[in-house]
Amino acid sequence: MMSLQACQVVLLLVCVTATVHGAIHEIKQNGNRYKIEKVTDSSLKQALASLRQSAWNVKELDLSGNPLSQISAADLAPFTKLELLNLSSNVLYETLDLESLSTLRTLDLNNNYVQELLVGPSIETLHAANNNISRVSCSRGQGKKNIYLANNKITVLRDLDEGCRSRVQYLDLKLNEIDTVNLAELAASSDTLEHLNMQYNFIYDVKGQVVFAKLKTLDLSSNKLAFMGLEFQSAAGVTWISLRNNKLVLIEKALRFSQNLEHFDLRGNGFHCGTLRDFFSKNQRVQTVAKQTVKKLTGQNEEECTVPMHNHYGPYCCEDLPAPFADRLIALKRKEHALLSGQGSETERLECERENQARQREINALKEQYRTVIDQVTLRKQAKITLEQKKKALDEQVSNGRRAHAELDGTLKQAVGQIELQHATEEQSPLQLLRAIVKRYEEMYVEQQSAQNNAIRDWDMYQHKETQLAEENARLKKLNGEADLAVASANATLQELLVREQNLATQLG
After folding, report:
1. What InterPro entries does UniProt report for this protein, alphabetically (predicted)?
2. Buried b (16+ CB within 10 A) or exposed e, 141-161
3. pTM of the complete model beyond 0.85
4. How do residues 267-300 score in pLDDT, each as one tens digit?
5. What are phi and psi of 255, to 5 degrees?
6. Residue 195 falls inside a structural domain
């Protein structure tokens, strides 16, 4: 048995070795669970190598709350039984490829800066909220998946490849940048999908119909939907559905929902009263659930309406609109134009700010939800790496900007030569050249318009003359015909006179 003095010597040697490599990492073990703290990019390989003797026993590896900006599947290859990997609250950037980790079932990647993620065939639970993920690739596997990708940069369901959209049980895409949804792209999960969360996106269109046999909850609140059409028949069996705070005007009256429906929330929309009347007349059970939902959430029997929406049908606010879609579209376009031009009313500006603030509150709450307690030294290291990465990204943007500037400058100067622009000099900035080119093209446009107008006027004159000539030709043709008839009549009369003359001559002779 090793003496206390010997243990102290070994511990000292370990600390000295770690210090030589630039950091003192700590490893904590609880059965087959291992946590490594205070590890950096430079000491990661050393820290993992220190577990090599027990690599066969490592099923859970926790590297959370460190200043790691990079890690590869090769670093983790010795851990052949690894099932859970926690990389949350690091500063991992760009692409993270863990596809070769064939035994990994659970990955926690919350609170990083990853842009693209690749995972292996055994993945069952993927936590990757609060990143910059725009694409996820999953190797084909047979197990069900739970995927949590809130607050990322997903723009369409296809940003998750086929493997990630197959046999999904829980899919959380809250706070992404999705504007259209094709439910057919989730067809491979039609018999497994139970929960679908896409609130706080920018969805204005839902299309495709798939029967999701096990779907229980559907959250599309805080989007831009204007029509709840037959596509929502895909969620006919849900028990919980919310489309709160959209732009809903109409509902397809043929929609039907399960008798098991318990929650139906459509507050904060802009309904046409007639569409609610038609829908609820065919779905009285849904109307009852809607009333119960509003009562439970607000304590009132009806939602509180905002001006000018003074009417109710069922528990929801509505307006009587003669042309529902056209009226609402015109109003939205007018509001959008007013806000972009800075001419929007105070009410419209405040409404826009409220929407942005609500989204930001959700983002902040999500970050707080997955926040990891990190010591100040690690926080400073993370902040330093984050700033370095931002500097690198900004340097790339500056470099790209300079290249684009040079290309633009060359293009503008080439354009100057092509249009023979006067008063343009080499010393002029691209902006000055662009203004001069735009002015010259405007002048050329005016000249071309003038020439085109003159040509049109000449053509109209020609057409007028041609019409006059055609009319004159028709008149002369008519006169010519009449003259021919007169000549023919005169010839007949002459013939008759000649015959008479011959007869008289015969009689006299």
Report:
1. Leu-rich_rpt, LRIM1_APL1C-like_dimer, LRR_dom_sf
2. beebbbbbbbbbebbebebbe
3. no
4. 999 899 999 999 999 999 999 999 999 999 999 9
5. -65, 140
6. yes
